[in-house]
Amino acid sequence: MQWIQRQTATGRISSIENGADPREPRQPGKWDIRSLLSNPEVAAALGSGVLMLVAWAAGSWSQPLSIVLYIISYAVGGWVKAKEG
Fold it and tell me: What is the pLDDT of residue 27?
């Protein structure tokens, strides 16, 4: 991999991999976990999935708790889209 250092307009030096401009959109196929997790829809989907797994695991010893966790999971997962609607 080739690293290129550029001086920005503010005078800071930034390292840019393969000469890519950070202001340009990222190439398809590259995953940036921080930007994914900062997206509210992705965070809601992950939270909902984790709650579903916990509800499924809790179902073997407490059915009422499992049902409550499933309801909370659906609310967390659908909150962003419901708010948009």
Answer: 63
